[in-house]
């Protein structure tokens, strides 16, 4: 074997081995992979029945879901493996820091998941939960860590103007002061934009002085996300604060989207779609988010969760949400735990 061949093989091993945290950069795409059965039976990472922070509609086992296979799959990237989440290590690394999720109920889904992953009943001091309007905080006193959720599904301003008109100001963010308090920010915005009928929360769009009754949805979304990106670049000190954007989380209301029209929807689904390819179409919003982030002066880190959620048709509360069919949010324990495991992996290299 020649010296050059030996050097190439050593290079190949170093850059492709299954360790997501060695070296200065993560050596694989954490968001390309497949869901595999956990033979070690070490998943889920916590029991929903033992976590006090889960909203009732997401506690699927408590709500009577009869199957539990969905709890025992783990995400396996193609070229590496995710390190197991270590809650004590996460808290130590983020001592005295503030972690804030800003967005819609999918942000809350991830916030609740992280709280459960960090909750340790054996701790000397128990974490405390407080709600103040649309702002919720959980404080872990032994390490001085605060994780927060701020409900703000559009990120840009939604205001009531004259004659009671509900106006979405696509080029305005006036309530971002709390965002500046955080050491780690995880933003999200998408699902509220899809609301129609009685769920729609705005009547008009405004850009500058011009009022629009309507415009193409993705045009409005792009203007708003560009406004958010510019605000972050202008107001967040990237040397102090890490900024992430939670990507587009998939919904499963139409079985035909994953090549199973007879399935109807997510109800009754007990296993992920096998492999690494989702047979349905991509979300237009994915490209919007990617393009906007690419143009940022200090780009946010995109938690590109779309594929790994598209493959999890089995992970929703479905009819075990305590109300209407829910194929948008995620059972806890469940899929959002992987989002936080990936977040932990990324932060490990800091």
TrEMBL record:
Signal listed as a keyword: yes
GO MF terms, alphabetically ordered: O-acetyltransferase activity
Keywords in alphabetical order: Membrane, Signal, Signal-anchor, Transmembrane, Transmembrane helix
Domain Trichome birefringence-like N-terminal: 27-81
Location in the cell: Membrane
Membrane-topology descriptor: Single-pass membrane protein
Pfam families: PC-Esterase (PF13839), PMR5N (PF14416)
Chief place of localization: membrane
Signal peptide: 1-18
Name of the protein: PMR5 N-terminal domain, PC-Esterase
Originating species: Artemisia annua (Sweet wormwood)
């Amino acid at each position: 074997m020649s010296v050059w061949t030996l050097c190439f093989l050593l290079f190949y091993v170093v850059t492709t081995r299954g360790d997501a945290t060695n070296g200065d950069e993560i050596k694989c795409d954490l968001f390309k992979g497949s869901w595999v059965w956990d033979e070690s039976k070490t998943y889920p990472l916590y029991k929903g029945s033992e976590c006090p922070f889960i909203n009732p509609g997401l506690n699927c086992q408590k709500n009577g879901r009869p199957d539990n296979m969905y709890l025992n799959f783990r995400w396996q990237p193609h070229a590496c493996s995710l390190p197991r989440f270590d809650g004590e290590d996460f808290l130590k690394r983020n001592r005295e820091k503030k972690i804030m999720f800003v967005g819609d109920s999918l942000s809350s889904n991830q916030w609740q998941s992280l709280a459960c992953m960090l909750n340790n009943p054996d701790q000397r001091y128990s974490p405390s939960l407080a709600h103040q309007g649309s702002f919720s905080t959980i404080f872990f006193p032994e390490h001085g860590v605060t994780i927060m959720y701020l409900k703000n599904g559009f990120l840009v301003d939604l205001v009531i103007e004259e004659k009671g008109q509900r106006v979405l100001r696509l080029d305005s963010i006036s309530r971002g002061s709390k965002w500046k308090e955080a050491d780690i920010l995880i933003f999200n915005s998408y699902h509220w934009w899809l609301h129609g009928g009685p769920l729609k929360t705005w009547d008009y769009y405004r850009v500058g002085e011009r009022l629009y009754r309507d415009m193409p949805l993705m045009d409005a979304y792009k203007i708003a996300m560009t406004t958010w990106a510019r605000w972050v670049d202008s107001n967040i000190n990237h040397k102090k604060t890490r900024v992430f954007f939670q990507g587009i989380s998939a919904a499963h209301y139409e079985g035909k989207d994953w090549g199973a029209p007879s399935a109807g929807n997510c109800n009754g689904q007990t296993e992920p779609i096998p492999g690494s390819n989702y047979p349905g179409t991509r979300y237009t919003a994915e490209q919007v988010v990617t393009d906007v982030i690419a143009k940022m002066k200090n780009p946010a880190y995109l938690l590109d969760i779309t594929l790994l959620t598209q493959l999890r048709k089995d992970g929703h509360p479905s009819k075990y949400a305590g109300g209407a069919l829910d194929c948008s949010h995620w059972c806890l324990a469940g899929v959002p735990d992987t989002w936080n495991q990936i977040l932990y992996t990324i932060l490990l290299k800091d």
